[in-house]
Amino acid sequence: PLILGLESSCDDTAAALLRGRDVLASVVLGQTQLHAEFGGVVPEIAARAHAERLDGAIEQALDEAKVTLPDIDAIAVTAGPGLIGGVLSGVMMAKGLSTGLGKPLIGVNHLAGHALTPRLTDSLTYPYLMLLVSGGHCQFLVVRSAQDFTRLGGTIDDAPGEAFDKTARLLGLPQPGGPSVEHVARNGDEKRFRFPRPLLDRAGCDLSFSGLKTALLRQRDQLIAEKSGLTEQDRNDMCAGFQAAVRDVLAEKTRRAIALYLAESPAEPALAVAGGVAANMALRTVLESVCADSSIRFTAPPLKLCTDNAAMIAYAGSELFAAGITDDMTLSARPRWPLDKTAVPLIGSGK
Ligand code: ATP
Ligand code: FE
């Protein structure tokens, strides 16, 4: 079937067309410029931009895929979690198209979109282990089906991407912080500054990243007080130290998550990473070796499918559609929507 996917939960307005596993078109209209002067995503501005641009994103996707609206078999849309104004724009658009075209509507959890992407780009079988590391999330999930996820642990405060972005801001590097911190860290000495390895002494797979930011701020201010400014080398060394701390913590917690996952004797054991931070080479390299140590497969979708996009929403929608799961006009936009139904009670209606 031909599935139209829509994504508008954060600061990317995206539309994609998917047939089977073929991504016919994947349009992502970013809003970085719109929010640049505010130092973060402004929900009100994001919501307005989504409402204004969804039309255009869909038209562009149809053009690129050389199909027309009536060719579409189903419409998959991010129904949460995310900034409610943006999610609402997408859900309203999808409902309108569904009604107008008389085609099924499928509400997709944004995190499920990220978590299922490795199946779009690689031949992973259920259950596989997923490390989702992005600007807003950090969690270990056992993915059992398009609707069945078990959360093994996750961050108790900041997400790693957020920590990278804050680090860049504190050191005067450009946003998004991940790529700029990684870039200068290559010329840095990771051992010069001391960064904590939070929660390693605590059992389980939970993580914490807010302490890293505090450590960075303290050491930066101490240096500035001592020498009235930071040299390029100081900055490189701080970035290297910070990145090494994130890498070490994620590596150790991944070892623990793998142990829990392997206890279930999965048929074809694999770890997949997704989310923007999965672009980080230091992290990828260490995860590869952690997987090699436990003889499990490691896979990461190409970067443009790791960060927010609508192809992942169309793909998750296609799996739900194949399982006979669709929604009706009662589908609601949800600011919060945990993937693991056993972890936190669901708010509102849903699958
Ligand atoms: P979410 O998808 O959880 O709602 P998001 O949309 O902000 O959050 P993504 O688009 O998946 O997240 O990823 C963006 C984040 O990834 C940013 O915080 C960015 O700094 C980080 N990032 C991108 N490239 C790298 C890199 N090479 N190293 C570390 N972090 C990176
Ligand atoms: Fe995302």
Question: What's the gist of this structure?
Answer:
The protein has 351 residues and is an alpha/beta fold.
Give your account of this protein's structure.
It is a single chain. Residues 344-351 have low confidence and may be disordered. Helices cover 44% and strands 18% of the residues. It is built from eleven helices and ten strands. The strands form two sheets. The protein has a five-stranded mixed sheet with strand order 3-2-1-4-5, with helices on both faces. Strands 8-7-6-9-10 form a five-stranded mixed sheet, sandwiched between helices. It is of the alpha/beta class. It has helices at residues 32-36, 43-65, 84-101, 110-121, 160-170, 177-185, 210-227, 232-262, 281-293, 303-306, 311-322, and strands at residues 2-7, 12-19, 22-30, 74-80, 105-109, 128-133, 138-145, 148-154, 270-274, 297-299. Adenosine-5'-triphosphate binds next to helix 5 and helix 6.
